[in-house]
Amino acid sequence: MTLQQLYYVITITEMGSFNKASEVLYIAQPSLTGAVQELEKELGITIFNRTRKGVSLTNDGVEFLNHARQLYQQYEIILDKYGKGAALKKKFGISTQHYSFAVKSFVEMVKRFNTAEYEFAIRETKTREVIEDVSTSKSEIGILYLSDFNRKIITKLLRTNNLEFHKLIDCKPYVYLWKGHPLSRQKSIRFEQLNDYPCLSFEQGDNGSFYFSEEILCTNEYPRTIKANDRATMLNLMVGLNGYTLCSGIICEELNGTDYMAVPLEEESDSVSNKMEIGYIVKKDMLLSSMGELYIREIDRYLKDSVKE
Fold first, then answer.
1. Burial class (CB within 10 angstroms; exposed 0-12, middle 13-18, buried 19+) of 41
2. Contact indicator for 96, 301 with CB cutoff of 8 Å
3. pLDDT given at position 87
4. Using N-to-C axis directions, what is the helix angle for 3-15 and 29-43, rounded to 10°?
5. Burial of 126 by CB count in 10 Å (0-12 exposed, 13-18 middle, 19+ buried)?
6. Which helix (H) or strand (E) holds 92?
7. How far apart are the two ends of the chain, measured CA to CA in Å?
8. Other CB atoms closer than 10 Å to residue 169's CB: what's the count?
9. What does the alpha-carbon distance between residue 41 and residue 51 come to, in Å, rounded to a whole number?
10. Taking Cα atoms as reference points, which of 95, 257, 276, 126 lies closest to residue 180?
11. How far apart (Å, rounded) are the C-alpha atoms in residues 141 and 164?
12. Rg of the chain's alpha carbons, rounded to an integer?
């Protein structure tokens, strides 16, 4: 088994056919097919189901692809750290809950590199998919939060997927709304003051649960709720419907605009359960690439400079 064969399998999966993969890889299709068949014979498994419409992974293939991505990613990281004159276009991706500060930090990190030599990706997505993306090496880093409410479930899921959580910062809950909202002039907001306005939250899919919610205090009873699946839609709902969401209080006006603000939510008790512990997840014992190291430095700096006391 060679690294080249691993790369072939990854590319075929991404392209969905041997023909398209051979074009991207600049290799004759018979040679590509032969390389994969040799690999399947060596491993004693069938990686791909072949049909006239293309290819799909077998059950064994799905498991093998997961390991292949992890191994090839580590190869790229080592090459990035120690290789000289490598022509390989390096890849780097992160997956994150819907945080503008995560995007801003990504932008600052990308500015340090020549985008002609790197393939970057940022994915704002559901909590479960953040975990899945890092677990399958689709992304090197994931950004999410823990609280006293979700910590046990999320930590167990991370452990099952051989992932580890690294804390970046603690935050108290804030009410995020537009500056024309009736409550925008308040120095702080009590929970009962929000009853007349729709609570906005990010949709977590059919298998979503309270434990995967991106919003703190998700178990509270909200008389009015609306779900969205992206930040732009949520911002529009804030203006059009006087909606609000609960957040960390760390906002990026450069990306979200200056029409929105975060107002402290009054704590109803001395419980620490209302606090958000924002951090990043990575594969356990994995070396970070130079892009990954820089991204963590950027997001750590941004959070510490921006967090409200």
1. exposed
2. no
3. 54
4. 110
5. buried
6. strand 90-96
7. 54
8. 18
9. 19
10. 257
11. 10
12. 22
DSSP 292: H
Helix ranges restricted to H, the chain:
3-15, 18-25, 29-43, 59-82, 100-110, 127-135, 151-160, 231-241, 253-256, 290-306
SS3 173: coil
Which amino acid type is present at position 280? Answer: Y
Q: What CA–CA distance (Å, rounded) separates 10 from 44?
A: 18
* Dihedral sign computed on CA atoms, order 176, 182, 184, 186: negative
Q: Is the pTM of this model over 0.70?
A: yes
What pLDDT, in 10s, does the model give residues 222-279? Answer: 888 899 888 889 999 999 999 999 988 888 888 888 899 999 998 766 554 678 899 9
Task: Give the sheet arrangement for strand 90-96, strand by strand.
Answer: 118-124, 90-96, 141-146, 276-283, 163-171
Strand partners for 246: 175
CB distance 267 to 192 below 8 Å: no
Q: Tokens standing for 185? A: 């002039």
pLDDT in tens, 5-33: 898 899 998 888 888 888 888 888 888 88
Supply the pLDDT for residue 27. Answer: 86
Residue 170 backbone zone (phi > 0: left; psi -120 to 50: alpha; other: beta): beta
Q: How far is CA 174 from CA 106, 272, 298, in A?
A: 24, 15, 23
CB 101 within 8 A of CB 250: yes
Q: What is the DSSP code string of 181-242?
A: STTTT-SSB-GGGGTTSPEEEE---TT--GGG-SSTTTTS--SSEEEESSHHHHHHHHHHH-
Distance of CA 29 to the CA centre of its chain: 34
The three-state (H, E, C) secondary structure of 131-157, written as one string: HHHHHCCCCCEEEEEECCCCHHHHHHH
